[in-house]
Amino acid sequence: MKTGKIAVLAGDGIGPEVMAEGLKVLTTVEERFNFNLLKQSALIGGAAYDKKGHPFPDETKEICDNSDAILFSSVGGPKWSNLPPELTPERGALLPLRKRYNLFVNLRPIVVYPGLEQASSLKQELIKDLNLLVVRELTGGIYFSDPKWKKKNEAIDTMAYSRTEIERIAHFAFQAAKERRKILTSIDKANVLMCSKLWREVVTEVAQEYPDVECNHLYVDNAAMQLIRKPKQFDVILCGNMFGDILSDEASQLTGSLGMLPSASINAETSFGMYEPAGGSAPDIAGKGIANPLAQILSCALMLRYTFKLEKAATAIEQAVQQVIADNIRTIDIISDGCRQVSTSEMGDEIVKILVR
Ligand code: NAD
Q1: Which of 9, 134, 139, 335 is most solvent-facing, going by the fewest CB within 10 Å?
Q2: From the CA of 25, how far away is ligand 1's center (Å)?
């Protein structure tokens, strides 16, 4: 029997609610596909600050260090937004997690499930059967480079990228494209930024090693426009940290709800990864039992695929999500006429029912 260890970091807001459903589904696929994951819960974010005085306490680091993967929900909320930057859940926990485990690949699959086309604000014919993958560099660029400071009347951020950083994310993206429709679009601002000039040069060189993948380059401003004009032209979108942050949120809206979108942050050299919904802690709906747990459940599928190489179990979860949508079962964020509205935990139960059928 395959075994492994995961750190379970539910965090703040809707985090604990959607995590409970992810774990329910994981337990079901463990039984069905005969594997066993040891799950150790730990505090993170605002919840950790309140109990331990730090959003990423040492006990949590130790549990994560001793795990094969981190299953994460979300952190943050108004209660902690005025803390010193290094103690906020986002700056004190999220960014250090990415850096500590060298999670340089961020993946966001953007899939419009049949039956959910009307949840998007775009015309249905533009997004019907949309399936694209955003590959974002996650540990370099302007979010991490020094110097970075702010004084009363002046502030500075630095954007830096090395050839090695660009090469490794580009290889990951080309390999992903090879398994898909074999089209890769690399995003930059090479007409203005030096980092982008290097980015384009390196991606062009790496492309020579993947002759079966069509490689295109787009400036980020044009890409932002093309994503809502004609999203189905894209297959794999490769971007640096900041452009990827912005474009992946834009792309997420093509599907209608953040509650449908999983993400994976991976160290491609070790397969260690952190898997989490693309959305945040949603303080506006926390505690109401109405959050959509499908992004968390789909994040479990990504974890099984990328860290544990359990493809069958991952696919079974994804098919169960597709089935629940086909059965017209919806949380409130994706509800439409003729569908049955369910709570967060009822949605988890429905997925389990499909998996044990
Ligand atoms: P958010 O993603 O939490 O919410 C944006 C909107 O999407 C809200 O209306 C929310 O109700 C809705 N939404 C999000 N997830 C949903 C789900 N599963 N089901 C139904 N609706 C859902 O973004 P925000 O309000 O800008 O941020 C709230 C907090 O989360 C902030 O403190 C922010 O810094 C933090 N945040 C954390 C992460 C993370 O932990 N990775 C990511 C983004 C934001």
Answers
A1: 335
A2: 22
